């Protein structure tokens, strides 16, 4: 018995690999290394280099490693860029997921944990999102994640799959000093890169209807996220029922100003962020409740904002 982690050499996927191992689950990682790093996968974890678009490779991996379930993390994850590259986004996230599910069905692998996104909600008209909040994605990325959830639902009906999807907003921090977020689009690496280059980080708008005028969002630690993915896999493996989808959220969120203050403290680099105009479409506050996940998936915000910053900063400094 083992579980396949697609995207297992990426920032989130590599944390999931380690969380599965900590839970005593044998693991194999598959990644095309388009944004991941081979060094992120422990040497004693089988690694297959390739894409989920290669159905034959996926099928062979499932057979060769006696896979019984899949944590599906692989995908094109940049919402803003997806607007400019919709076909690429759909190919990676929709065609890729369909190819993966076909290979699973043909090889009798019917358990799946899908790493989804809170982008499926778009800009909701509520301040705190729950699982049945209406879905209205506003980018090809968000749409592709929602379609991924539909595909899993349909495979439950068509092929007896048991699945769950985990939705979340902004993932930060590091669970291990050798694992870091290398995304050119995420807030933490953008701020770190600016500080290391002597530039001043920027806040987009400080006149929102929030306590300090800046946008409020969920920020969750990657190790907490990975732990709940591993719990979901363990429960599916044991045949325990789970909801089709869970939000992994803080319930209250933090503001961009709070993040900047924590960055200055955690890095030891004092700065006053520049304030730029609002970005079109940015709502004042979007956070998600994690109550259902806390009940079923051992979800908890185990790391403070300061710990999120310091763990990410330690990992970032290791690469120079």
TrEMBL record:
InterPro entries: Epimerase_deHydtase, NAD(P)-bd_dom_sf, UDP_G4E
Cofactors demanded by this protein: NAD(+)
NAD-dependent epimerase/dehydratase domain ranges (all copies): 3-249
SUPFAM superfamilies: NAD(P)-binding Rossmann-fold domains
UniProt pathway: Carbohydrate metabolism; galactose metabolism
Keyword NAD: yes
Keywords of this entry: Carbohydrate metabolism, Isomerase, NAD
Domain of life assignment: Bacteria
Top-level EC class as recorded in UniProt: isomerase
Molecular function GO terms recorded: UDP-glucose 4-epimerase activity
Pfam families: Epimerase (PF01370)
UniProt catalytic activity: UDP-alpha-D-glucose = UDP-alpha-D-galactose
EC number assigned by the record: 5.1.3.2
PANTHER family linked: UDP-ARABINOSE 4-EPIMERASE 1, UDP-GLUCOSE 4-EPIMERASE
Family, similarity comment: Belongs to the NAD(P)-dependent epimerase/dehydratase family.
Protein name as it appears in the record: UDP-glucose 4-epimerase
